[in-house]
UniProtKB/TrEMBL annotation:
It is a multi-pass membrane protein. This is Probable membrane transporter protein. Its main location: membrane. It comes from Commensalibacter melissae. It comes from the Bacteria. The chain crosses the membrane at residues 9-36, 72-93, 100-118, 138-165, 177-196, 202-223, 230-248. Signal peptide: none annotated. The lineage of its organism: Bacteria, Pseudomonadati, Pseudomonadota, Alphaproteobacteria, Acetobacterales. Belongs to the 4-toluene sulfonate uptake permease (TSUP) (TC 2.A.102) family. PANTHER family: MEMBRANE TRANSPORTER PROTEIN YFCA-RELATED, TRANSMEMBRANE PROTEIN YFCA. Keywords: Cell membrane, Membrane, Transmembrane, Transmembrane helix, Transport.
């Protein structure tokens, strides 16, 4: 009974996280604590999360590509730099026992959230639907965000979405779609290093991955067919929840 409870728990966590991650990013803020809850240590939990996350990202990417919403125009060089950044971040993690980043992430997400609550109309009303011909800043973004993805990861999708909206003035639907191949490149790179180090619980990753794949399809459909206004509201709700949860989790806040 205990065994099946964890199976069902991980499946539904993967389903919810896959949907949320496709819509607004931040699915890792749900899945990593859930894996830790089952008793997996931190680095294997991050490796297992990469595998299930890659499955969900692949699901959403294929959905966007088949629908004609996703173009890889201008992404070749940024994808390469994202891979490099992720590899460096993941290798650094293998030799690091310092979990100080756990304390930094909640504050980073809080700063992003406050920025969008204070200046909501600067970003969510944007209407650009594609990247410029030569997105010169994007490779550097790939290096930095890729490093974070490899070293820790949770919230990477949201950081990608926000960065694309901020720098290239893209509407949230477009930024969300472009985020997927960039994020999956970082995830797969990190995943290959975790696999080589034997730091993945494959059974847990498979159970969560099935849920994440279904969630990716659901989330992709919502991105394609829902308005920017809907995604704006959902984005802020998810970000608020992630910020609250990350403070509770990583600062051991208890409510009496």
């Amino acid at each position: 009974m205990h065994f099946y409870f964890y199976d069902c728990f991980l499946f539904f966590i993967g389903l919810i996280a896959g949907t949320i991650d496709t819509l607004a990013g931040g699915g890792g803020l749900i899945t990593v604590p859930a894996l830790l809850f089952t008793g997996i240590n931190i680095i294997p939990a991050l490796g297992t999360n990469k595998l299930q996350s890659a499955i969900g990202e692949l699901s959403a990417t294929l959905r966007f590509w088949k629908s004609g919403q996703l173009s890889f125009h201008g992404l070749a060089i940024p994808l390469f730099f994202t891979v490099i950044g992720s590899a460096i971040g993941t290798i650094t993690l293998q030799y690091s026992a310092d979990q100080a980043l756990n304390k930094i992430v909640p504050w980073l997400l809080l700063a992003i959230l406050l920025y969008y609550y204070l200046f909501p109309n600067l970003h969510f009303n944007l209407e650009k639907r594609q990247l410029p011909i030569k997105p010169k800043i994007l490779p550097w973004m790939g290096t930095v965000i890729g490093f974070y993805n490899g070293f820790f990861g949770p919230g990477t999708g949201a950081i990608w979405t926000i960065s694309l909206m901020q720098i290239y003035k893209l509407r949230i639907n477009t930024a969300t779609i472009i985020t997927k191949p960039l994020n999956i490149a970082g995830n797969i790179t990190a995943l290959s290093i975790f696999i080589s180090g034997g730091q993945i619980n494959y059974f847990s990753a498979f159970i969560m991955g099935v849920g994440s794949f279904i969630g990716g399809q659901i989330g992709a459909s919502l991105v394609i067919y829902k308005s920017s206004r809907f995604l704006r509201v959902f984005f802020l709700i998810v970000m608020t929840s992630c910020v609250f949860y990350s403070f509770v989790k990583y600062y051991n806040i208890h409510f009496v």
